[in-house]
Amino acid sequence: MTRLTRRSLLASAVLVPLIGGMAAAQDDVELVFAGSGGGLAQVMDAVFDKPFEEETGIRIKALATTDRASAMRAMMEAGNPIWDVAELTPVDYATASLEGWLEPIDWATVDPDNRLPEQARLDDAGIAATYSTILAQRTDKLPEGLTMTSWADFWDVETFPGPRALQDSVLDNLEFALIADGVAPDAVYEVLASDEGVDRAFAKLDEIKPHIVAWWTSGAQPVQMLSDGEVHFTSAWNGRITQLQAEGVPVEAVWNGGGLKPSYIGVLKGTEHKEQAMRYVSFMLTDPARAAQFAKLVSYPGMVKGLYDHLPEEEGRALPTHPDNVENQFVTDAVFWAKNMDALQERWEEWLLQ
């Protein structure tokens, strides 16, 4: 499986004794955090931001942002990082890391007790949360005695008839197509590294294209289509399916072949509040009880050790990094997509019009 090499997200008050000498000056410090906004920002505020301010006196100003890579580029070219800390998608992270826009993280200070696994501790970021794009199915629409267990089944329209949907994005769909074509999840990027591998993925997508009734563009769309019965099988984000199940809709997530995506937290190069920003990263990422509190509210868990000790077993099994779910997923290769997204997305858009 593609490895997540060392990074992370949300943090805990581990640094209080380490940076205690700054306490008197903290009341006048405000950190600007660039995040996703919406409901997630409300959860962040309750679980992390307000407790962090109470603990340290450092205020958090959360901004709802889009196209963070372009915004960071503009800041770096101007030599004026307006943000102190940023939530980063895999592609955002890879771009920022390759361009040198992030401060190196001293993990001996940020995570002195080694609460984070090595793969969550990157040189210049941490993994704060994870979610998966998975196959979701209406269990009441399946042929009697059968259930989908793979993307190969999703492609098998004769055994599993019914309307289907996929996201309008080249990312994930190339990987899903290769898995449906027999490539092991941990080998998809090895195959995609060649032009022949990309051609193979698009050829497999040719097979399923006539059976896709909708190409969704927001996370709410596949949920609504499943709920209404407009589609029986679709790719979807795991947290949305958990919510749909809680509402009593007969849906099920298929973790096999899912695309696991980390959300990274990084500190922008040149921030005037580097030490306080690192303290915030520690506060977000290294407390398993706090991480479990976040995961109970948003089904996108971090990777801190001991997280699942603070969750009921049933709840834990619904999360992407639970041991029962993570083994047969692939981890989105942020660097691959940072290097290839523009060209492959252009080919995708041309392919959709064919």
Amount of helix: 40-55%
Return the CATH class of the largest domain.
Alpha Beta
CATH topology of the largest domain: D-Maltodextrin-Binding Protein, domain 2
CATH superfamily (homologous) name of the largest domain: Periplasmic binding protein-like II
Shape assignment: globular
**Terminal Cα span:** 33 Å
Count of discrete alpha- or pi-helical segments spanning 4 or more residues: 15
Biggest sheet layout: 9 strands, mixed
Return the structural class. alpha/beta
Notes on the protein architecture:
The protein has helices spanning 38-56, 68-78, 90-99, 107-110, 151-155, 170-180, 188-192, 195-208, 220-228, 238-246, 274-285, 288-297, 313-316, 323-326, 334-353, and strands at 30-35, 59-64, 85-88, 126-138, 164-167, 212-216, 233-237, 251-267, 330-331. The chain is of the alpha/beta class and 354 residues long. The chain folds into 2 domains: 13-130 and 261-326, D-Maltodextrin-Binding Protein, domain 2 (3-Layer(aba) Sandwich); 132-258 and 330-353, Periplasmic binding protein-like II (D-Maltodextrin-Binding Protein, domain 2), CATH 3.40.190.10. Strands 1, 2, 3, 4, 5, 6, 7, 8 and 9 form a 9-stranded mixed beta sheet that branches. Helix 1 links the parallel strand 1 and strand 2. Helix 1 packs antiparallel against helix 12 (288-297) and helix 6 packs across helix 8 (195-208).
